[in-house]
Amino acid sequence: MPRSLLRFSSLIAALGLAAGAFAALPPAGFTPLYNGKNLAGWRGGDTFDHRALLEMAADERAAKIAKWTASLTELKDGKPHWRAEGEVLFNDGFGGYATTERDYGDFELRLDFKLAKGADSGVYLRGAPQVQIWDTAIPDTKDIGYAKGSGGLWNNTAGTPGRDPLVKADKPIGEWNALRVVMVGSRVSVWLNQKLVVDHIVLENFYDKNNKALKPDQRRPIPVKGPIQLQTHGGATHWRNIFLREIGTDEANKLLASRGGDGFKKIFDGQTLDGWAGATDAVEVKDGAMVWREKKGGVAYWNQDLTNFQARLFFKVPPGGNNGLAIRYPGTGDTAYNGMCEIQVLDENYNETKKLIGDKRIDPRQAHGSIYGMVAATQGYQRPIGEWNFEEVTINGSTIKVELNGTIIVEADVSKIDMAGVLAKKAHPGKDRPNGFFGFAGHNDPVAFKEIEIKKL
Fold this sequence. Notes:
This protein is mainly beta. It has two domains: 18-247, Jelly Rolls (Sandwich), CATH 2.60.120.560; 259-456, Jelly Rolls. It has helices at residues 3-14, 50-55, 58-72, 206-209, 249-257, 350-353, and strands spanning 31-32, 42-45, 75-76, 79-80, 82-85, 88-91, 97-100, 107-115, 120-125, 128-134, 177-184, 187-192, 195-202, 229-230, 237-246, 265-266, 276-278, 283-286, 289-292, 297-306, 309-316, 322-329, 341-346, 389-396, 399-404, 407-413, 436-443, 448-456. The strands form five sheets. Strands 1, 5, 6, 8, 11, 12, 13 and 15 form an eight-stranded antiparallel beta sheet that branches. Strand 25 and strand 26 form a beta hairpin. The radius of gyration is 26 Å and the shape is elongated.
């Protein structure tokens, strides 16, 4: 052994430390969530709706968190349930869930885990269950799926892609496993021991989908932000090298746009309005984008008739900005009524930006992503003003789905809408149109669109 290493080893021995007491350095761009010493940065948690927690009165929320946190260090056989053992964060299978004090949006998470025989655990993403981790040899009398392996989104609907892992990649009990999770919007990809086990699947919101008090159109997607949680489930777990990297807007948009692009055709070349018709005089081409001219309105549309299709694009709104996607537009009239619909493109903080109060505030069915006047989209998923958003819209028969920045914010069958209850009870004669044009419904604001693509279904 070289003298320098010998001296270092002697120093370690003199200090009474083991080499394992030093945690690995995080990869470039990553931050360690566990410091190798204690539970600083972590609180207690449980299977509890993070939105509901945030909506509690401050004192009630603090009391609940304090109770969960106290359970982390309750003693069993003279030792706390959660404890730092050098580079390893150990849990004996009991107590609350180790939960990050910070909330995260889009991120890449890496960690190593090791299970005791019979252990059943998991990693909650934004406070929602879960990337499943378990002993694959647990007797499966109820067809739970242990033998299929770890890494699946087990709380998603049975039989849907992603609920079970694509491959079984677990190492034998007693060995360390490497887990990598990438989450952008509600879409999750998981690698276990360098093998892809979940491929860009929407993580369902466990709390709303199982809430029988909510109607289907009231069930919300995963929150835009929330904590990371390490679940306890009665079996001992070891965790180490817990590193997280937050993903910024540009990277998130590129990741989303890189997926599912087969069959799409660009309908805007970034330089001219060739192939477009209607109110093209209301649009200018600037820096590769179609930008609406201020104080100009009307519908500019791609001059090809469509039936069923998907559209994907990037958009950016100014403060208070208002525009819309024209769906199955007939070429004349107001697309919100004469076309199948208008899907709103709007500053998500429109009410506050315009300082609208009382009955002047817009209806939820006028907010971003909504099927104008008919179906309200879930809010909270638009990027800050001045940043580009990635949106994909699917029109198939009478159904419409809007996915914003990786999260599905509306999915509805307009043929089933009770027209007596629509906004202002105004007729929508074009609602059941089987075909028409795709375009943009300008409303005087410099909203920008780029990388516009269509896929015929």
